[in-house]
Design a protein that fits this description.
By secondary structure, the protein is of the alpha/beta class. It has helices at 13-23, 36-42, 60-70, 73-77, 87-99, 113-121, 133-147, 158-174, 189-201, 217-224, 247-256, 268-279, 289-296, 316-323, and strands spanning 32-34, 45-50, 80-83, 103-107, 125-128, 150-151, 180-184, 206-212, 259-263, 304-309. Helix 5 runs parallel beside helix 6 (113-121). The N and C termini lie far apart (45 Å).
Length: 324
């Protein structure tokens, strides 16, 4: 995959289609799964985009592989370093293993055992750094500069956004008359890519970005008209705790996201339990937040609705603590 011209700023549908071509032989084309139980309760035709079934356990593999594929071979061979709360690190580690190159993942000291073990199992070397997005980013930048490795940003990059946008491309391909799409918001790469693909291919569909009340970085940015850094984030949805929305994702959000909503984290366990009991899907708290938005009434969807389930990287003991 050739690198996207970042001077053009916004990702196009052609960029996302190119990313889909790059991923065709390596990524899982995850299914849309019909949720008759919750759909009937809400009076909608509800489907889930099951990214826990993606390689590495989340959507992150898509963007990571596309980014690595865009690098010159000699640059790529020197290896990559990625700051990550967990899922991005596993996606980068998986992509690096496929390319046969070294990878370092900078994780917070609070990373879950499942996410650290997942990255290590895929061959990455783990470096711990603080608890915040910016502490991880600073450490990864330091390693990149001293070791000559390429920094793989988790969301504020056009090629990453295009890769994540293939989730939206598949949604519209499988359900062309989709009316509502709910997508989780962390740093903004997934929501930027999905909203771009959906709005450019199915412009009448409504795209709703969902984030936890403990990290409302997109809602605050939309109020201010620009990304703003939150003083503090935390909570169960560890993959959505970025303290600031990415600058490039925010540009896409302003064009393509119809609404951003906050969901209290107390609703996440019920959403996870529903997905496990009724859909037979193991979904982590961050990945279940779209279903929590539906179950709590934070979102009032109409017609054919898709909830993007972004990841499923939670270990057995974590499930027992939340759902036992």
């Amino acid at each position: 995959m050739t690198a996207i011209d970042t001077r053009r700023a916004l990702v196009t549908i052609d960029d996302i289609r190119m990313a889909s071509t790059v991923l065709a032989t390596v990524a899982v084309r995850t299914p849309l799964l019909h949720d008759e139980v919750l759909g009937a309760k809400l009076g909608i035709d509800l489907w889930h985009k099951a990214e826990p079934l993606q390689r590495g356990g989340s959507f992150k593999f898509r963007g990571a592989y596309c980014f690595l594929a865009s690098l010159d071979a000699d640059v790529r061979a020197r290896g990559v370093v990625a700051p990550s709360s967990g899922n991005h690190g596993q996606g980068v580690a998986m992509a690096a293993r496929l390319f046969g190159i070294p990878a370092i993942v900078v994780m917070p000291t609070t990373v879950t055992a499942a996410k650290r073990a997942g990255a290590e199992r895929l061959g990455a070397r783990i470096v711990m750094a603080g608890t915040t997005t910016h502490e991880r980013a600073d450490k990864a930048r330091e390693i990149s500069e001293t070791d000559g490795m390429t920094l793989v940003h988790p969301y504020d990059d056009a090629t990453i956004i295009a890769g994540q946008g293939t989730v939206g491309l598949e949604i519209v391909s499988d359900l062309p008359d989709v009316e509502t799409v709910l997508v989780p918001v962390g740093g903004g790469g997934l929501s930027a890519g999905v909203s771009t693909a959906v709005k450019l291919l199915a412009p009448r569909a409504r795209v709703i970005a969902v984030e936890p009340t403990t990290a409302p970085k997109l809602c605050r940015a939309r109020e201010a008209g620009r990304p703003v850094r939150l003083e503090k984030t935390g909570g169960l949805a560890d993959g959505l705790q970025a303290s600031e929305i990415g600058a490039l994702p925010f540009m896409h959000h302003q064009l393509y996201v119809d609404e951003a909503v906050e969901v209290d984290e107390s609703a996440l366990a019920d959403a996870m339990r529903h997905l496990l009991d009724r859909m037979k899907l193991v979904v982590e708290p961050s990945g279940a937040i779209t279903v929590a938005a539906l179950m709590t009434g934070a979102v009032k969807p109409k017609g054919k609705t898709i909830a993007v389930l972004s990841g499923g990287n939670i270990e057995w003991t974590g499930l027992l603590e939340l759902l036992g």
